[in-house]
From TrEMBL:
Similarity-based family: Belongs to the syntaxin family.
GO cellular component: Golgi membrane
Segments forming domain T-SNARE coiled-coil homology: 147-209
Species name: Cordyceps militaris (strain CM01) (Caterpillar fungus)
Record's keyword terms, sorted: Coiled coil, Golgi apparatus, Membrane, Protein transport, Transmembrane, Transmembrane helix, Transport
Gene Ontology biological process terms, A to Z: Golgi vesicle transport; protein transport
UniProt-recorded name of the protein: t-SNARE affecting a late Golgi compartment protein 1
PROSITE patterns: T_SNARE
Membrane protein topology class: Single-pass type IV membrane protein
Compartments it resides in: Golgi apparatus membrane
Spans through the membrane: 217-238
């Protein structure tokens, strides 16, 4: 029984592959039509290469689409048994029909080239009419892309000029700040020199005061010691 979850549903997995391949086949088909409209003969190497690439893509796409169709046929009789709703089955049927129709249209264009000899006259409607329109659309698209690219480049250059201007202004601001800081450092150095000189003078005066106090204290100590010695001698004589 097929699980209803997206991770385990084979249809959804193959569906993603089909849509991816279809997205890749469409540019190949447009390129093939453009080359076909410009080619002078059906045996043009560029046309043959584009045709081969498109046929390879359609072949792989057709195989995966057949798997999708078989999956739909397997569940459409009893969707509930596979955990699917009737609306989901209808969506899958419509997807298979739409992709199949688009693949068939591409294959018909390939058959037209074989039948008419690459744009020559024949019983079928002239396929080059569509190719010419495709070429016009392609040229217009290329022109729009070039205009858009030039516009984007102009915006990019404007952004670069704006960024360079900002960097230049920032550099000027940094230069002014560095100059101001240099001047402040000069002032600080001058003040530091003055303070250092004042401190040195103060230390010299302090050392002079300390030496004078040391001499005074030494004389006092000697006098006290002499008095103590005399007192001890008197005490010895008395005793």
């Amino acid at each position: 029984m097929m699980s209803s979850t997206n991770e385990e549903d084979p249809f959804l997995q193959v569906q993603q592959d089909v849509l991816t391949q279809l997205s890749s086949a469409r540019p190949l088909f447009a390129s093939y039509l453009r080359i076909r409209s410009l080619a002078s003969a059906a045996t043009s190497p560029e046309l043959s290469s584009a045709r081969a690439d498109l046929e390879t893509a359609l072949s792989a796409l057709g195989e995966d689409l057949a798997d999708l169709a078989a999956s739909v046929q397997a569940v459409e009789s009893d969707p509930a048994a596979y955990g699917l709703s009737g609306g989901e089955v209808t969506r899958r049927q419509r997807l298979v029909q739409q992709v199949g129709g688009e693949i068939e249209d591409m294959r018909e264009e390939l058959q037209k080239t074989q039948s008419t000899g690459g744009g020559g006259e024949g019983g079928l409607p002239d396929p080059s009419a569509f190719a010419i329109g495709e070429e016009d659309n392609y040229a217009e698209f290329e022109q729009q892309q070039q205009v858009q690219m030039m516009h984007d480049q102009d915006q990019h250059l404007d952004g670069v000029f704006h960024t360079v201007g900002n960097l230049r202004r920032q550099a000027d601001d940094m230069g002014r700040e560095l100059e101001e800081q240099r001047e402040m450092l000069d002032v600080v150095d001058t003040v530091a020199d003055r303070v250092g000189g004042s401190l040195q003078n103060g230390m010299s005066k302090l050392q002079t005061v300390i030496r004078r106090n040391e001499d005074r204290y030494s004389g006092c100590c000697i006098g006290v010691l002499i008095f103590v010695l005399i007192l001890l001698l008197v005490l010895l004589l008395v005793l």
